Every structure is written in structure tokens, then in C-alpha cells.
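Researcher: Please translate sequence to C-alpha cells.
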Amino acid sequence: MRSNQVDISIVIVNYKVREYISNLLSSILKAKHDFNLEIFIVDNHSEDGSVEFLKARFPDVRYIENLENLGFSKANNQAIKQVSGKYTLIINPDTLVSEDTFSVLFKHMEANPKCGAAGCKILNPDGTFAPESKRSVPTIWSSFTKVTGLGSLFPSSKLLSEYYLNWIDENEQTKIPVLSGSFMFWRSNLLKELGGFDERFFMYGEDIDLCYRVQDTNYHIDYVPQTSIIHYKGESSKKGDLRYIRVFNKALYQFFDKHHSSRYSLVFKVFIYTAIWLKALISLFTNNVRLIGYIASDLVLLNVSVILGFLIRFQFSYEVLTNLQNLKFLWINLLASIIYVIVGGFLDLFQSKKESISNQIKAIIASYSGVALITFFAKELAFSRLALIIGLSTALVLMLLFKVIQINISKSDSKVTGKLKRLRILLVGDAEHTSGIKAKIHSRPDWNYEVVGIIGIENQEKHQLGELSQLKELIKTYQIDQVFFALSSISYKDMLRQISLLQNEHVVFKLIPDSMDFILGKSNVEYLESIPLVEVGFAYSKRVNQFLKRVLDVSIALPCWILAWTFTLPGHFFNKSEKRRIRGLEYYSPPSKNIWKNRTILFWHILKGNLSLVGSPIYSGKSNPQIKPGMTGPIQINASRISSDTDHENYELYYLQNYSIWMDIDILLKSFFSETSFSKDLKTAFS
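Model: Translation complete:
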């Protein structure tokens, strides 16, 4: 039996990542075994209810609540001064430990009394090895090789890959100069002797500084890859953010100024300072390549549309194409581009996590409206109105097509308008813990997930697709986009092993913690409980939305009715099929042999206002009376996900509450590209 002495003190600094800490604490409790732990959470004024949220779940943790954001160093030091454990673990909130993490590192430190601190193998969320698991102290040369990419090009070279010690195999235990601040297992006496972190570092660089000071002691630092953790990286600080770039590079300069300043002249210091900020600019660019790509692709399509409108208007005339006077109309391209970028910025159009078809349409219309308004007052820039209209139409088609393709390529977005294909999910866990999760996921009308099946941990049961050992093959067979691990029924070690093995399968991994009330992803948290639905002020009932819905119905139904009537005209006269009535409407039976004749009837009823393109199921008697019956709708396209009357009601209430014209368009697109069809539903109704 162990004494009451604390074996390991754990220090976690929180800033608005309560769900990640909750998951980390669950993994810590599983790794506890017979160790005597004390856990400190230092909250840096999160203002999101973090402390209350965590106290309700983990009342035995010691909480330190700050009235302002003191930064990483000061917050950690607050707890370090109070720790009583033989060892102290400094760990980031957005990490998970394995069941053997504490036992492996405790045993290593006991066997190596001169090891002052140790780290383990760190995995990225996609299962790849995180190079910051083992690092050197940054020098001018090592920083240069990292920024230029020479270290990645020549990983075996000690000269060129010094920054991340790339020549050392990730599975080789060795002494290293620097640990990652996300996981640092210290001897408490050494940590206190060093005075903890240097509080001049607000965030970043403090881990390098602390490790650097170890070289002035009789201790060394070890990299111990026999155990691993997963790190979500920067959930409390986004790396594409300008503030992050500024703080990180300020910390880098602080480290250089503190430890190397006396060695160099003023001119050389200026050179170093310039190099650091040049690196900052490069980092800002590389971290925002996707954002720049979004803007660039949109502007290319916008300008092509403007030029195409001009060429179509003037019938691609040779004289027009060779007349240099017409180059003055390139000012129109510049005006349209500037307005598009400004309006798109206000609408968050270029945020990668905020894909929005409706906002893109708004930005396109705003850019053309702005051009029309400016050219009305500036006659010398006047442009053909017909050319503008042609350009606008072309831009809408090209840019929306590009946006839909862009949205549907992504495997990580679940709530984006325009996502035609549902994200295919595998649940990993035992029957007891996964039985309710599938129903919860499918009960959410705002999610675009389709649970393909459940993977068992050990013994395969009838309702399971397979076992954990078959996960890789099942991902390929069923074309899986995401894998959800139910952590209540799988060990963290097994989960980390699977993530590492599947790192090349291009799937997204998400975690469902023991509480089973939310899903944890790399950069988002999705709650599993039902969304609040209150029958007050439905958007569906607003006059403007009813008007727009009617315009959409008529604009699509009219040409479809003309085409369908023309196509089925002989059948109406020579093929006398039996007619049936469902909910007051007549249809030809059997439906499988009268598909187009029934569609002609439907389009006619839509034009008359009896039906809508999108609405409640025509044949169902339990649909909400507030929703007009439709050829397709939220119930029809989600029929496979609805398992109860409550789910049915939730889907309809969600449609009423969150209705917009874009939702109807999204449902129509999903219906067009899915197996759902009115004829199939009608056949079910007749049977």
C-alpha cells in the first residue's frame, strides 16, 4: 500500500477549453491506478462557466480562479508553489493521456535519479507523430533550417535537422535538450529549485527557457517514447491568428535576448530581430494559405465572369477584342473585386469554418450592385447593363458550383448548407455504450451525419459490422469519413494505437467522452443533447419567407410542369391507369409505372399552391399541419435517421424554427443527389 504522500501533482491551465479539460481529466483518472494524485486547474478568467462546469463533474480537483488572464507562466507558477507531489506534470488542457502514461514515466524517473524531467511521444489528432516531442534549444542556424524547410528535406542530417532532432527515431529513448510545454513530467524539487517558469514569458517560449536552465544543474532531460499522448494543439490559441504570431515571435526574441544578448553586437541584434519578424510574416502567410486560396479562387471566378459578360454582350467581336480602348473596363473588374472582398470580410465569407452559400450570393450581388451604383455617377466608367447582368449570372453559377464542390470535398463539416453527401460515421465501442449514441446523433436535424455501423471492442455481436482489429478494412470498404470513439468502452491506449495505425487513411477522428454528452473534434465541440425547440416566432411563418418560398416553388415547378406534361402527353390519352387518392390528392397507380404522370400532377398542384417543393410528407397523417405538404422535405431526406415519433417532431420543429430559402434549396439539392424520391414514398403509401 502506498502512503498518503502525493506521488504526482498535475497542473493544468485553462482558458475557454472546458470540454477538452473534462476529457483530459477522464483520461487522467483512468491512468491513475494506485498512484496518489493531486490535480490543480488554474482558470485564466475564461468567462464561459468553465469552473462551474468542471466542479460539477470533478469536485475533488483543486481550482485556482484568476480575475484576469495572467498568461501560461504565471498561472502555472501559482499551482507549482502549492504542489506537494514527488513529481509534477505540467500538461496542456487539450491533450489525452494513455492508461500507462503515469506508470511508464514514474518508473523511468525512479530508475534514473539524474533525470530531472521527461516527456513522451506526442501524437497529432490524425495519428501522426508530433515533431515537438523532442527538440533542441533554438539557435540562429537551427531556426533558419526550420523556416526554410531544410530540416524536413534532409531529416537524417544532424546539421540541417537540428531543430526537431529529426535524425533521432521517434521510438528511440534518448536525452534531449527541450520538452514540449504540452507535456512535461518534472521532479518537483528541481522544478521549484528553478523557480518554475519565467513570468516574463506570457505564452510560448517559457518551456524552452525552463528546459534551457536545466543544463546549469546536475540533471538532464529524457525523451521516453514507450507511452504516448494525443495533443489537439492550440485550442485556446489559434495558430493562424495575427495575435498568436506576434506573441510567439515576441517570446522567441525574449529567449534570445535573455540568454544570448551579451554575445552579439547591436547590429547583429537588429539582424536577429529582423529575421524573427520575417519568420513571423512567413508564418502568417503559410498559416493562412487556405484563406488566401479561398479569396484568390473567388476573385478569379468573379473577374472571369465580368470579362465573359463583356465578351458575350459584344458577341466576341474581333474589333472589340482588339480595341485597346476597351481595356478601360478593367476598372470594373477592380471595383467588383474590392467590393466583393470588403463585403465578404464583413460576412465572414473567407473563414474556413464558416462555409456559407448564402453569404457568397450576398457578396456577389453586393459587388455588382456597387459597380452599378458607382458607374451611374461616374459616366466615364459606365458599363453595359446587359453585360453586368450576364456577368452576375455567370458569377453566381461558377462561384456557387465551386463552393458546393469545395464544401462536399471536406470530411469534417457536419452542419454546412450545400453538403449533399452525409458524412459516413463508424462508432467504436461496446453495445452498452453505443446503443444510445447512434440514436442521439440521428435525432439531430442540424447534423449531416449517417452512422454506418458500430465496431465492437472484442467479441463481435450481431448488430456490429466488425471488431476493432478490422477497423482499417471497414473504413475502406464502407468509404468512411469519420470515426467516433466511445471512450467509456475503449482504453485510451488502444484508441491511440488505432489512430496511429490509421494516420494514412484520411479520416477524421472524434471522441465521445465517458459522460457521452458531447463529441470532441480537433477544433470543435458538438453537444449530443437535443437542441432546444420552442414553438414561438417560427421563421417559417414570416411573410417574407413565405413569399420567397412561393417564388422558389413557381420558378422551378412551372418549367418542370411544362416539360413533364409534354413528355407524358400521349400517356394521358392512351394509357388509362387507375387513380388513387391520398390526403385529398389524386395519383396514378401503380406509382412505379406512372412516375412522370404523377410528377406532372404534383407540379400542377405546386403551381396552384396546394403543395410545395419542400414540405411535410404528402402521404403521412402525423405531419405538422403548419407545414405545407411537399415533394421532398426534412422528413423525407432523413427517413433512415428517424426512429421515433419524437425524432419526427424534432425534425419538423427544427424546419419551422430555422427556416430560410437556403434551407429549401439545400434540401432540394440533397434530394436530387440522393436515393430519396417522391415516387418511392408514394409507393410506400400505396402499399
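Researcher: Any highlights?
Model: Residues 242-287 form one domain.
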